[in-house]
Amino acid sequence: DGGITQSPKYLFRKEGQNVTLSCEQNLNHDAMYWYRQDPGQGLRLIYYSQIVNDFQKGDIAEGYSVSREKKESFPLTVTSAQKNPTAFYLCASTTGIHGYTFGSGTRLTVV
Amino acid sequence: DQQVKQNSPSLSVQEGRISILNCDYTNSMFDYFLWYKKYPAEGPTFLISISSIKDKNEDGRFTVFLNKSAKHLSLHIVPSQPGDSAVYFCAAGNSGGSNYKLTFGKGTLLTVNP
């Protein structure tokens, strides 16, 4: 079955650590996105990529980094510069404006 | 600057009744609108969409209405069922853009009471 896989489902980070969230899709979608969900804040765009080896900052890119070395993969690194990283992170992909396919999310908690 | 607004954080309805979720947008470039449904700790799932060339789109119990002059859309669920209880996100985008970016509202928590 085609879809998007995010891992891990739960992730704990110590202060000052970098952590990487995985996002893999087998839908052959060109465009991929990372969103962050906070209570009462909806979904906010962190980074997006329309093609391999290219990506753009979204609305809240500070403290995050991404790479797009393969069409199927779009990992997100939450760096120590991100001061409030505790959130639910969602990855999505699409071939057009008609709608995204989302992964099941990763819950990141700072301990 | 919120370009997509869902002014009701929550809505509670009785099973069998109609649920109406509202969404307003400010960006005139938006011409494609979608509704997503989300359960806790899961990713959103696509529900229904509408292009700006239409004012209504229907899919089973779900109907989306678009009022372009008012920059307003609404999602009607009839009849509402307990399984419809979830957070509903309104999203908007520009079909002429090449990046397929969607802007999401903050969501409305719908609770359908048996």
Secondary structure: number of strands of chain B: 11
Class based on secondary structure composition and strand pairing of chain A: mainly beta
Q: How big is the Rg of chain A?
A: 13 Å
Mean pLDDT of chain B: 95
| Biggest interface and residues each | A-B, 29 and 27 residues
Oligomeric description of these chains: heterodimer
First-to-last CA distance of chain B: 38 Å
Tell me the β content of chain A: over 45%
Percentage of β-strand residues of chain B: over 45%
Number of alpha- plus pi-helical segments of chain B: 0
Can you tell me the residue ranges of chain A where pLDDT is under 50 for at least 5 consecutive residues?
none
Structural class of chain B: mainly beta
Overall 3D form of chain A:
globular
Alpha plus pi helix count of chain A:
0
Return the string of H and E elements of chain A: EEEEEEEEEEE
What share of the residues of chain B lie within helices? under 10%
Overall 3D form of chain B: globular
Mean pLDDT, all residues of chain A: 93
Most strands sheet of chain B: 6 strands, mixed
Largest sheet of chain A: 7 strands, mixed
Detailed description of the structure:
The complex is a heterodimer of chains A (111) and B (114). Chain A has 111 residues and is an all-beta fold. Chain A has no helices and eleven strands. In chain A, strands 2, 4, 5, 6, 9, 10 and 11 form a seven-stranded mixed sheet that branches. Chain A has a four-stranded antiparallel sheet with strand order 1-3-8-7, with no helix packed on it. The N and C termini of chain A lie far apart (35 Å). By secondary structure, chain B is mainly beta. Chain B contains no helices and eleven strands. The model of chain B has no long low-confidence stretch (mean pLDDT 95). The A-B interface holds A 4, 6, 31, 33, 35, 40-45, 48, 50, 56, 88, 90, 92, 94, 96-105, 107 and B 6, 9, 32, 34, 36, 41-46, 49, 89, 93-95, 97-107.
